[in-house]
Each structure stands twice: as C-alpha cells, then as structure tokens.
Amino acid sequence: MPVPVLLVAGFLGAGKTTVVNHLLAHAEGRRIAAVVNDFGAINIDAELIAGASDGVVSLANGCICCTLEGDLLRTLATLLRRDPSPEFIVIETSGVADPADIVRNLMDPVIFREAPLETVLCVVDATLPAARLSDALLKSQLRAADVVALSKVDLVDAGARAALREAIRGIRPAAVVVDAVNGDVPTALLFPADPDRVPVPREPGQRRPAEERFETLSWTSDRPVSLPKLQQAIGRLAPKLARAKGLFETVEQPGRLMVFQIAGGRATLVPGGAPVAGVPRVRLVFIAEIGVLSREEIDGIMQGCVGAGAT
Predict the structure, then answer these.
(1) Quick one: which of 35, 61, 87, 154 has the fewest CB in 10 Å?
(2) How far apart are CA 291 and CA 137, in angstroms?
(3) Residues in CB range of 298: below 8 A, 6 or more apart
(4) Are residues 219 and 185 in the same domain?
C-alpha cells in the first residue's frame, strides 16, 4: 500500500522542528517515519526531534533539493522496505530549501507510486513583518504549500497576524492558513482521511534559479564552556546571524547538555539530555549570509568561552 508523504518547509528558524516534534509526540498509534535534513556539517535538527531513534533518518551536508537528491530517494526506498513499514513519512527540509525542487523529485513515477506526496506544509514565523514575504525563497516556499502554519503567534498582536495572513493569501490563495500553537497543526489537514484515496500528481512549478545566500559555520569543543562567557559571545555574534543552534555542556552544570537556538532575533535555552561519550561536549552551528561572518572570527570569539580548568 502506498505510504503518503508530508513535506514540511519553511525559512530558517520558522519552527519546522517544533511542528514535526508535536506530530511525532501525538502520533496516536500511527507509524510515522521522519526524514530530517539540516543545512551544515553538524546535524543538530535530528537530535532535536523528540525520541530520535531508528524512525528518524538524518540527511546532512547540504540541502535535499540539490546535493542530496539521490540520498533522499534512497532513504525513501529504505523506509519503504521496513517491516512493518511506516504508515506516513514526514520530510523536514532545511530552511534554505526550495520545496518546488523537492516536489519535482518526489514526482518521479516510481517514487510517487510507492510514496505519493500528500501535503506540503509551510511553517511561517508569525513575527515576520508582512513585507518580508517578498523574499524570493519565502515566496517559493509559500507557493508550494497546501497548508501554512503560523508559529509563534503568541508573540504578535491580532493586527500583525491579520496583515501577515493577508500577505500569505496574496501569494498562495489556495492554501489553508492555521495558527500552530506549540507546533500543533490538525492532522486532518496533513494526512488523508481515506487510506484508499488515489493520490494525484502535482505540478511543481518552474525551477527557481539557484541562489546560494547562506553558509553554515560550525564550532565544536571537547571541553565544556562557561555559560556567562557563552552568553557574551553570542551577544557579539548575534547581529550577524540569520540562525544559530546547538548543544553544549557548561562548567556550571557538568554532565548535562543545554539546547541553544537563535531564531528571528530571539535566543532560547532549554535543558537537553546527557552528553554522549566520544562526541564533542559543545556543538554549535551558525548560519549567516555568505561573507558576513568568518570562521576566524567565530573561533576567536568562541575560544574565550571554554571554561578555565574544564576537563
């Protein structure tokens, strides 16, 4: 029986992983496999997925819409051979991916017969000014969407939400727009109610000229960092960042990881799990416009965070 695919798109820091986490945490008995793509050499997103296990497949080192097209198709084939096979497959794209390119690959007749694309969900940060939707990549992500989920709606007033919804309707009139409080999107909008429904191939639209706008710069350390020093370092780097995320152990709380993220100019810090032997105690990914931030600048700032006397 064909396994429907949900494609989750959205710009850097929009809240895609939160939506996927909520979906997996409220699967209600459904067997859902998540394919997680990250932009950069350190795949943080896979570790941020709730209950990351053999049900989550991580694709690293690029966007699945370009350098990892082959890996994506091979991954889907591997998932379909599992026993028992998943009932649904969720693909979370990187924040710099154009869904139209991924849709084009999923329209391959062999793939579509076994894993038909059911829904494209675009997650949009509700705190974005409506004018930001004129960005070419954001437009492409919205134009591919069947459903648009507004994240972080608690951070904006009703007027700003209404303006954003109006801008979204101007770009993608056919999409259903919903508020996604804490990542909650009604599953009835995402998966088919009738398992015997015959899926219909879709037109992915014109290929958007490739535009490399962002780059990732990673920093790792085998020694824990001082939290106050790290906070100061992030404060220096933040004006140049489009996104940042990572896991780290502090001198102040050894044996415990913290999960750090910057999205939309806001930083969050929440407890994580325990450090894993053989894995650097600090793994951070910084995403910035190409040429805005150098590796030397990051190394120079971050080295000062390593706590004195840490082992």
Answers:
(1) 154
(2) 19
(3) 217, 219, 237, 286
(4) no
Report strand pairing: 266-271 vs 176-179: unpaired
Listed in sequence order, the DSSP H helices in 49-200 are 69-80, 99-106, 109-114, 136-143, 158-171
How confident is the model over 205-218, as pLDDT tens digits?
655 555 577 888 89
User: 0.85 exceeded by the pTM?
Assistant: no
Q: Do both 126 and 239 map to the same domain?
A: no
Predicted confidence (pLDDT) per residue in 230-281, tens digit: 999 999 999 999 888 889 999 999 999 998 888 777 888 888 888 888 889 9
* Residue 62, pLDDT score: 46
Closest to 97 (Cα-Cα) out of 12, 180, 173, 154: 12
Distance between terminal CA atoms of the chain? 53
* Residue ranges making up the domain that contains 252: 214-305
> Among candidates 145, 176, 115, 191, which has minimal Cα distance to 16?
145
- State how many domains the chain has: 2
Instruction: Give me the helix-helix angle, 99-106 and 136-143, nearest 10°.
Output: 40
CATH of the domain at 293: 3.30.1220.10
Helix, coil or strand: residue 97: coil
Do 15 and 157 lie in one domain? The reply is: yes
Q: Are residues 143 and 225 in the same domain?
A: no
